[in-house]
Amino acid sequence: MPLSTQSDQGDGQYVLVASLDNVRNLSNILKAIAFKDHALFNATPNGLKVTVEDSKCLQANAFIQSEIFQEFTIQEDSVSFQVNLTVLLDCLTIFGGSTVPGVTTALRLCYNGYGYPLKLFLEEGGVVTVCKINTQEPEEPIDFEFCSTNVTNKVILQSDSLREAFSELDMTSEVLQITMSPSQPYFRLSTFGNSGNAHYDYPKDSDMMELFQCTKTQTNRYKMSLLKPSTKALALSCKVSVRTDSQGFLSLQYLVRNDDGQICFVEYYCCPDEDVEEE
Amino acid sequence: MDCILIGSNVKVLAKAVQSLSRLGEELYLEPQENGLALRTVNSSRSAYACFLFSPLFFQKYTPPKSSTQRCKMVIKSVQAVFKSLSSLEKTVEKCRIELDIEKSRLTFTLHCKHGLLKTHNLSFQDSESLQAVFDKEGCANTLTAQPKLLVDTVLHFPPSLEEVRVSVNDERVLFRNHVEDEAEQSKAMMTEFCLSAEEFDRFVVNMHTCITFCLKELRGLLVFAESSGLPVSLYFDEPGRPMVLSLTDSVLEVNFVLATLSEEGQPRNHNSNMRRVSEPPITDDFMNDDVDYIIAMEAGELAGDSDWPEPPRHALTPPRLHGAAGDQQESSGECEDEDGQQGAEETPVEESGRPPNKKFRSLFFGSVLPTPSQMSNRTLQSQEVLASDSEDEDGSPSP
Predict the structure, then answer these.
(1) Do B83 and A168 touch (CB under 8 A)?
(2) For residue B142, which of A273, B204, B343, B350 is within the disulfide window of CB 3.0 to 4.6 Å?
(3) What is the Cα–Cα distance from B289 to A233, expressed in whole angstroms?
(4) Contact across the interface for B114 and A168, Cβ inside 8 Å
(5) Please, is B29 exposed, middle or buried when counting C-beta atoms within 10 Å of its C-beta (0-12, 13-18, 19+)?
(6) What is the reported pLDDT for A132?
(7) What are φ and ψ of residue B15, in 5° steps?
(8) SS3 state of residue B88
(9) Would you tell me the Gene Ontology cellular component terms (chain A) (predicted)?
(10) Over chain B, what is the mean pLDDT?
(11) Are A107 and A26 in contact (CB under 8 A)?
């Protein structure tokens, strides 16, 4: 890609400037949704939202609030652009992944607006790297129309136990079936693989279950291949909320604590595979 | 069949499954009156393993009413039930296994911490009984050792080593790697490991012998033995007869049965599971089948080992016929072949008398060139070449 496709401007003209003392507070979260090459960045005065989609059936969003940044200046109400996420992550981690205590890489992210490249200044131990990544036309993200009022079932679990279940899931199964019900089995993950089927049941009074609000018995199937990337977010998180709406759309929300103990969110939305009334 | 396991016994069962998975690809599950048997056999049917868990191993054990509750399944699917072996103890409180052939149901239910319930409904096939016929008490030699001793011994051999030779006399046991191909012998690194009789808890040697078997098949047992801490007993006698490794305690009996190479170099499976007890001894017709497996070795003194007693230098005596009736069965009842094909190939009888003297070519022990043998043992009466076909059962003298 030629370096001068997009022109550069001076400092004062930036539409968005964001600084972080520790770039890992951004890169770690982005890794949790980096299952596709391209990501949509949307910045508002509230912070940064990064969206990755797959085949119009799966959407992952990472939210990094403006408070996480040491500096977050935005000249417009909403700034959007699309970049190659893989390239961006390579740049953010350009100083390597070492976690030597006390040594952090600082980031200053600058964007001039539509048509301009995304400029990254990364500094570690006095060494500065400047990266310019070409931006692309932002695409409209899918709106799953998942709103709180449509939610029929919701549970909040501690990530530890769900991590264990996800790590043991039979990957020969094409689908992951999730059953949520006010009665037995309450919250069940099922797989149907080559060697048989398996069910993981979480009772509503388990001490891993922080919240249990199920109004209606629902069973939905989701493609395992779509949900697999969510395990990265699960690995980073300490709590996860699982919600389904009346249409069977799934929302997984992960509470992630970054290196400095601050809270960020990652969420995954997934379309159901088919309507299954019984197990 | 319905049984419940609690606490650390779940891990023992999981380790047994893991141990069996290193030998065969299918797990045969057979609930019996005297406990639950988990068995497997390797693809070449030269190694068999059985873990028998007595009813006391379980918190509750309900044997099936009919005796036809037997099934087999892909071992990987059972391993999937017991993933993350290391955390099994901490997370699993109870495990329930239910088998109902009529309802086509095999269910493993794990009750874990925090109320988490894991249910696995596995697919399986009906199967016939898989049982090897072997006689531990009838073996001439019995050695019992702490598992660590054997594990440490095996450690000295490369993991890729297939076959190992074990020679035993009144005072010690020698483990050597076995290299069959003459060309390889000059390039291969030969390792010899000697254990004196004192290192063993029990050392009963009634026959000085040298057997060769596949070490790989045993590694699964040794891992299990080490984790259980139970002493391992080896039962064997002459080459060609099966070797048995056994672990027992009050609630568990483990037996690994391996075929050993007969002195012609052909592995014999006459301990095999597929044997029909009533079958007559195999005739000469099978002799011609074994050309590929015959390894010729010239009789000669075993060099480089001065303490070694010199085995008799005469020609082999007429084979002893251990007929179908002669081999005592440890398992009661017939052995049935699950798919009915194997019965004819495996023979219950063995033939050669004494283990012959052998030399093997190596840098350390001098060398003798093995000569190619001829197929028919009948024509070699004048030579001290072992070329007899192991399948030759009818008592004809071997050279």
Answers:
(1) yes
(2) B204
(3) 61
(4) no
(5) buried
(6) 95
(7) -70, -35
(8) helix
(9) checkpoint clamp complex
(10) 71
(11) yes
- Give, in order, the Cα–Cα distances in Å from B208 to each of A48, A209, B350: 80, 66, 18
Q: How far apart are CA A99 and CA B141, in angstroms?
A: 59
Token pair, residue A220, equals: 């939905």
Between CA B76 and CA B36 the distance in angstroms is 19
Amino acid at A142: I
Summarize pLDDT for A232-241 with one digit per residue, the tens.
999 999 999 9
Give the pLDDT band of residue B182 (cuts 50, 70, 90). low
Question: Which residue among A165, A185, A197 places its CB closest to the CB of B121?
Answer: A197
Closest approach of A59 to chain B, Cα-based (Å): 29
* CA nearest neighbour of B123 among B58, B168, B73, B53: B73
Contact indicator for B144, B230 with CB cutoff of 8 Å: no
Q: SS3 for B277?
A: coil
The sheet that has A209-214: what strands, in order across it?
Answer: A79-84, A38-44, A47-54, A58-65, A263-270, A250-257, A237-245, A151-158, A209-214
| Spans of all domains in chain A | 12-133, 148-270
Give the CATH architecture of domain A148-270: Box (3.70)
Query: How many other C-beta atoms can be found within 10 angstroms of the C-beta atom of residue A160?
Result: 13
Query: Whole-model pTM?
Result: 0.72
Strands B117-122 and A196-202: antiparallel
- Give A200's strand partners: A189, B118
Cα dist. A200→A167, A187, B109, B282 in Å? 12, 8, 10, 54
Partner residue opposite A196 with nearest CB, options B116, B117, B123 = B123
CB contact under 8 A, B119 and A198: yes
On chain A, the residues whose CB falls within 8 A of the CB of B119 are 198-201
C-alpha–C-alpha distance, residues B10 and A201, integer Å = 19
Strands (E) located in chain B: 2-6, 26-32, 35-41, 47-53, 60-62, 71-74, 92-100, 105-112, 117-122, 125-126, 141-145, 163-168, 172-177, 192-196, 202-205, 209-214, 232-236, 243-248, 252-258
Rounded Cα gap, residues A159 and A32, in angstroms: 14
d(CA A52, CA B287): 69
**A184: confidence class by pLDDT, cuts 50, 70, 90:** confident
In angstroms, the Cα distances linking A65 to A234, A264, B316 are 20, 7, 88
Distance CA B313, CA B300 (A): 8
Secondary structure class of B210 (helix, strand, coil)? strand
- Please give the angle made by the CA atoms of B98, B257 and B230, to the nearest 5 degrees: 75
Residue B297 near residue B311 (C-beta atoms within 8 A):
no
Report yes or no: B197 and B142 within 8 Å, Cβ to Cβ: no
**Do A148-270 and A12-133 have the same topology in CATH?**
yes
Tell me which CATH code domain A12-133 carries. 3.70.10.10
